[in-house]
Design brief:
By secondary structure, the chain is an alpha/beta fold. It has a single domain, classed as Vaccinia Virus protein VP39 (Rossmann fold). Helices cover 37% and strands 23% of the residues. The longest helix is centred in the N-terminal third of the chain and has 12 residues.
Length: 270
């Protein structure tokens, strides 16, 4: 395992201000291409502990508010908080309801009182946080004793086909980087939260053409945001090289795009 420190990983992850701007711009197009995000979030919902009945929940990295609305239906008599770093996402989500409050903030510095939430739900947001240890510390602070963190994130191996295909074209950074699953295991084990469940499983989508995948990533706001990414337009020759390389992965269902999804359920015991 390559042990990426916070400082090292921060050098590989996008600047959070760029993440906020990118996702804000994608607010109106996000839900139209969010097949993976819906599937992963609903899977995370099934993993919540049986009998969970939070009085107050936090949707951390709430995006367009889709799962804020799911949570409000699941826990009809609770108070919901939707928090996201992207103002554009909150502006989009607010008229659709689901949460009592919509908060623009960073997952690494939550503007909430200690012991104020029974559930923190976060689906496909925490992969953008370089200091995951800080996120866990903040979640522990705001959870009540007995409260639960349920999160889904991405780890190394995500979009491996796209990464490998670009690697045959040039040596530049074209695909977002994520931490190793082993690093999630280590940080969760070392946190003040008790790990009830933590596992990684692949989720594969298929596309007829590469451009459908790259268009979807752009519409989600999750296209290449890495430091060291190439600036400007990608030339036709390099795009043709990408298409040719990606074709080597083609399956009967189409061109695969693999996402390595981390599912975690943690509890505050004290």
């Amino acid at each position: 395992m390559t042990d990426l420190s916070v400082a090292t990983l921060a050098g590989h992850l996008p600047d959070k201000r760029q993440v906020a701007v990118s996702f804000s711009r994608a607010a109106s197009s996000y839900d139209s291409v969010a097949e993976l995000q819906r599937a992963v979030g609903h899977e995370l919902m099934t993993r919540l502990p049986a009998g969970l009945a939070p009085q107050r929940w936090l949707d951390l990295g709430s995006g367009t508010g889709y799962f804020s609305r799911v949570l409000s239906q699941q826990f009809a008599h609770s108070e919901g908080l939707a928090l996201d770093i992207a103002h554009g996402m909150l502006t989009f989500a607010r008229p659709l309801g689901g949460a009592a409050y919509f908060i623009a903030a960073d997952a690494e510095s939550l503007p909430l009182q200690p012991n104020s939430c029974d559930l923190v739900f976060s689906s496909l947001a925490l992969q953008w946080c370089a200091d995951f240890d800080r996120v866990l510390s903040e979640v522990h602070r705001v959870l009540k004793p007995g409260g639960v963190l349920a999160f889904a994130s991405l780890c190394v191996g995500t979009l491996s086909e796209l990464r490998d295909s670009w690697r045959t074209v040039d040596g530049q950074v074209h695909v977002n980087r994520f931490r190793e699953f082993e690093r999630y295991q280590q940080l969760c084990a070392e946190s003040d939260l008790r790990v009830l469940d933590l596992q990684s499983q692949p989720h594969v989508l298929h596309y007829a053409q590469v451009r459908q995948l790259t268009h979807e990533l752009k519409a989600l706001g999750a296209h290449n945001l890495n430091p060291g990414r190439p600036e400007g337009l990608t030339g036709r020759a390099r795009l043709q090289g990408l298409v040719s390389a990606y074709e080597q992965f083609r399956q009967p269902q189409g061109l695969p795009a693999t996402y390595q999804v981390v599912y975690g359920i943690l509890e505050k015991t004290r």
